[in-house]
Amino acid sequence: MRILIATAGSRGDVAPYTGLGAELVRAGHEVTLAATEGFASLAHEAGLGFRRLPADPRARGGTGGRRELMRTAAAFVTELGRGFADAVDDGTDLLLLSATTAPLGWQLTEATGVPGIGVYLQPTAPTGDFPPVVMGTRSLGRAGNRAAGRFALRMADRVYAPAVAELRRRLGLPPLSAAAMRRRREREDWPVLHGFSTALVPRPADWRPGLDVVGTLWPHVDPGARLPAALEDFLGAGPRPVLVGFGSMASGEGERLSEIAVQALRRAGLRGILQSGAAGLAAAGDDVFTVGEVPHALLFPRLAAVVHHAGAGTTAAALRAGVPAVAVPVTADQPFWAARLASLGAAPDPLPLPDLTAERLAAALGLVTGRQTYTAAAARVARHMDGEDGAGLAVKTIERLA
Questions:
Q1: Residues 73 and 130 in one domain
Q2: Residues 172, 33: one domain?
Q3: Is the whole-model pTM more than 0.85?
């Protein structure tokens, strides 16, 4: 089959699909990744084709309130929709759609007849088990959680409404609202594969048929990949360090966060690695090293702990390595994953970014590196994850459904 994987956003929204794409290529399929600017190299390294989707992924990394996030998300989606149809050519046999691209991809499947399957990195369907991942972590009871989940979907429909209306006009389709299209797909039990571990989120029993959890989708890592020599030298020069990084979050806060991180590490008597990311973290010294993008799969098993923003991918990578974490959630689904880490015992209570201080971070680092219970909990989850094959199960399911 000629398969197009369509996703959009930051590195954490894109990289997991390179591992799935590489597994599909090994199974004999021709795979192209459609993503926002800057990810062509990730696709090509995994042996995938690449098509650029419009929209600036930085628009989704803000730290403002919910109303501001809704506005920036709507602007991002509208821009994305204006070029989305160009990514699908006449030879495409199957669309694999992320949670971000699915409401747009549904319009294309109707217009072209090309089938689509959802491949999501977060649980988005309402359930009584927990509240919506973008609406905080406090349970409202089973009925309340389900109601909040339906409300979250209606809010997403509002975000997508202008883009869907514009895309349907361009495709020559009759008017149909984003909400009506979503309800149609739900009635059809449209299949969605969820690429996270059942250790973090077991499949809710009240989900409709067609919603499955396959296990974590890991980014592709070349078998010959190695860590930079200077980083290897730092790792070998002393005890295991702690990594501090915030991924695509906290842009413009690099100086403040770097200072907090270095002070906290030194208070706790720990060596540290700062991963620059969008924040631009940086520091120098015998006990601190700064890196850019490096594969988590190669670095994390060499660490004592990870301080991170609790994105889905980084959360899973730390657990896979059996390394405890200090979660510093910023926005969107990050408080959800941070709470999951704490509930598993692999991290203390989260430290939301606005509340982060050197004193609090040092205290948390003292806990996770000084008490073996956190490492033991992370190791238990790592053993569970080791028994999952997210990409392999996803490929088998995709081939069966298609």
A1: yes
A2: yes
A3: yes
